[in-house]
Design goal:
Elements: H1 6-19, E1 23-25, H2 49-52, E2 62-70, E3 87-96, H3 101-113, E4 125-129, H4 134-143, E5 150-152, E6 157-158, E7 163-174, E8 198-211, E9 217-230, H5 231-238, H6 251-260, H7 273-291, H8 300-318, H9 330-337, H10 343-346, H11 348-382, E10 387-388, H12 390-400, H13 404-413, E11 417-418, H14 420-438, H15 449-453, E12 459-460, E13 467-477, E14 480-482, E15 484-485, E16 491-496, E17 498-499, E18 513-516, E19 522-531, E20 537-543, E21 547-548, E22 552-557, H16 559-582, E23 589-594, E24 599-604, H17 611-626, E25 631-637, H18 638-645, E26 658-664, E27 668-671, E28 686-695, E29 698-705, H19 706-726, H20 735-769, E30 773-775, E31 778-784, H21 790-803, E32 808-815, E33 818-825, H22 827-831, H23 836-843, E34 850-853, E35 857-862, H24 868-880
Amino acid sequence: MKNLSSSEIRQMFLDFFQTKGHTIEPSASLVPVNDPTLLWVNSGVATLKKYFDGSVVPKNPRITNAQKCIRTNDIENVGKTARHQTFFEMLGNFSVGDYFKKEVIPWAFEFLTSPDWLDMDPEKLYVTTYPKDTDTQKLWAEVGIDPDHIYKVEDNFWDIGEGPCGPDSEIFYDRGQSFNNLPENDPESYPGGENERYLEVWNIVFSELNHLPSGKYVEQPHKNIDTGMGLERLVSIIQGTKTNFETDLFMPLIEHVEGLSDNRKYDTSDADDVSFKIIADHARTVSFAVGDGALPSNEGRGYVIRRLIRRAVLNGKKLGINGPFLYKLVPIVGKIMESYYPEVSQQQEFISKTIKAEEKRFSETLNDGLQLLNGVIADLKKDNEQVIDGESAFKLFDTYGFPLEMTVEYAHDEGMSVDEDGFKHNMELQRERARQARGDLQSMGMQDETLMEIKTPSEFIGYDHNEATATLKDIVVNDEIVDSVNMTTEQAQLIFDQTPFYAEMGGQVADIGNIYDENNNQVAEVMDVQHAPNGQNIHIVKVISELDVNQKYVLKINVDFREKVRHNHTATHLLDQALREVVDPRTHQAGSLVEPGYLRFDFNSNDALNDQQISQLEKIINEKIWAAIPVKTEVLPIEEAKKKKGAIAMFSEKYGDTVRVVEVDDYSVEFCGGTHVSNTAEIGLFKITSESAVGSGVRRIDAVTGEEAFEYLNDQLSLLKETAGKMKVNQFKDVPARAEQLVDEVKQLKRDNQNLKVQLTSQKSAEVFDKVEEISGLNVIANVISGADMATLRQLADKWKSEQKSDVLVLGAGSGDKANLVVSVGKDAQAKGLKAGDLIKQIAKEIQGGGGGRPDMAQAGGKDPNGLTKALQKAKDIIKNT
């Protein structure tokens, strides 16, 4: 076996499949584009779905890639096992309806064993196959795998529910018993078992079936190959390391952490090795994720990044590292990976700054978490209890980033334990909520054989023409190709040899319009235009009169609709560049929508734009509009466009050998296939209507141009005029001062109102606290107070506590369809087993509500004020039986 570096192995894999006629697909962003089913790109095939589901036919059906991936479903195991990582690389080769088993199996064997490639010993290779897949078993034996090394395993069938599926075959490498963590005769000591001896190298999926919603399995129109090989595992085998973490992908990071620690050394036999591994893994993940535009936040991808940074910081503390340090590892990640992923080194300053800011933020949160934990421990000691409940442990984990093991350690130091089953229950509840939020979206659709088979050439001529005479080449109705369609059909899909209709792409909506016969009679209304799998513009139409294939028709777009879309599309290009000037040079597009009535632009940022920044953006863009700058378009080879023009590619779009470049002077130069104005002056006016957050690290701007911008400003002026009238202000310029005066008056009224409430509470307390009754040796105050709200009840409870008026307080108040309850329990009553939280849960049912709280104080809300008297009586009955 050859001695190779990780970068050499990655390149060798790609070179091998390039010799087999494969096109190398560049690694896509970790942030999925137009795929709501994924939080992260989590496999090599994830970015190729459009080819496998038939929505796009690739230029070359043979594809290979090295794809960066993130999986976070098992974060807790990172560092504790030899091969768990949140960030990893998946090497893969793929066939979209081209080659199948008899090609891919010999190639896999050749790459692994040939002296020209990895030169592994064939005797050390084992494979698992689906029991019924005899063809695969025969092929492995024919290429040179010992028949005794071919295992039949029922689990070797790749199926994710509805969509493509089929048998698969996994390849294992035998590292010898010296690497094993099990006795040789252990039932799990076999290829595919839970052991460290037989290491899975490669999985080859033979995607030949479709799993239908009915549960039936049918053959796919095109049989596909989807393979995945984890680079980290492969490097571990070739470099002969015990785990993935001793390879050249991780050791430079671990060695640097050693230098930052208080003289700790990485040793796989030492407990500290887990912290080293966690830090190295998480440094890679957050460096790449932030580089791809995901920023720390409290939800979605941002929450994952925040959690990983916090885990790394906590493990740094275990190694004696205090203060921000993770950001210092970004340059090392960049250096290790720059041969294939130069983006980390290129964005090193931005990534480091982002991580460092999050580390500092966590230092403050960490202190808050420790205060909560200390509070929980103090309360338990008061009650002579020894177990931290699972809900509190989970809150520490979920809100403050405390791993369970850290809470367990703190508890142990105080002579306590943690309800770990309760923690796991809360964790599962959160996962279930996440699953429900994602819904039942499928990760890959089924192939549309009808559209995939249509290969008629079709040319888009809409850049220069608003109408065209074209020949109708294909008609599809109800997924069947037909020769004609009549007016009884509601909808049809049409493909012409040429068309002026723009198909929806890159955020720009499709053109609408009409189709006429040669006598100018309308025969169809074009409602939408999409790309067929082979790239043609497919017109979705409402049929008005008969249409026949091979007949000529006149296609006319709605010119007013197109013009407004053009204005808004060019405005998005100006906005894209202006954001780099105003917000940050590294700001990039994260999505867009170009409609005739407005434009929407998403961009990466963790901070909201302030009023000054919004004004700056509008000023810059309107100045470019009023400067009447010509807008030029040019089709160039992609490398020339990048180097000569410096054109910006839009958020992970895939481009062909040639690209269309749209230039607004030297201010904005971008790859774009959309329609644009010929001069910025055509846009007329630009106005931002809103700015908001749409996800973790992503902000959204809505804006209007031209006529819509004028109408928007007119509406705002009308609102200002109406407001001025209601404020009795004669001039608009006096509105802000009058508004400030009214705000001050309202604040004063609120203060006066609060003072009155305090006086009222004091008066009520005198009435309430005088009515004390004895129940089972306890002094109890229980009253329904008219005209009070929850705030008043809490104030009364606080006053009761400070004055120690009784052992138990139960107060209720209600109005309309709202009812409130408050319960407070003194120490003597608690000692008898009475707890406010338990009591409130039982009596809240009487007001059709619920609540909870601590042993000394609890509250509840409901929707039946008529039940308050019953609730108080029930409270008395419970106290009586305590």
